[in-house]
Write a structure and sequence with these properties.
Elements: H1 6-19, E1 26-31, H2 42-58, E2 68-73, E3 85-88, E4 92-94, H3 99-111, E5 120-123
Parallel strand pairs: 1-2
Antiparallel strand pairs: 1-3, 3-4, 4-5
Helix pairs in contact: 2-3
């Protein structure tokens, strides 16, 4: 049984609606700005994060009719060949996510629906695209 009060649930629904959470097709998590950088230098991760944010906005893939949600993760626990990214609901993991690689992921995967095989190191095969 939920311990949430009805007014808290209403507030969550309002926030969800304002963010367009039910409209997203894909969600990309990017390992950036780690407390203890291991997979890539902090500067590299932050550069990738800023690039991802800027390009998704330039391509109108975020709000008010969002297609892609993005989250900066402190660590995705794959501590090599970073920055690391994972795209859901496809459950595809990418390595070496510098701006040029992110551009390909944005164009080919997030927009086109085609996995960028060259940078994939793991995927959940039970998930069908």
């Amino acid at each position: 049984m939920s311990s949430e009060r009805p007014d808290q649930i209403t507030e969550l629904e309002r926030i969800s609606s304002s963010l367009g959470l039910t409209k997203y097709r894909r969600h990309i998590f990017l390992c950036a700005d780690q407390t203890e950088p291991k997979c890539a230098a902090r500067e590299v991760g932050l550069e990738s994060w800023e690039y991802l944010k800027r390009r998704l906005k330039e391509l109108n893939l975020v709000g008010p009719e969002p297609l892609v949600y993005r989250t900066k993760a402190n660590c995705l626990r794959v501590c090599m060949h970073g920055p690391i990214a994972v795209v859901y609901p496809d459950a595809v993991w990418y390595h070496s996510c510098t701006p040029p690689v992110l551009e390909r992921i944005i164009q080919e995967h997030l927009i086109g629906g085609k996995i960028v095989e060259e940078f994939v190191f793991a995927r959940n095969m039970a998930v069908r695209m």
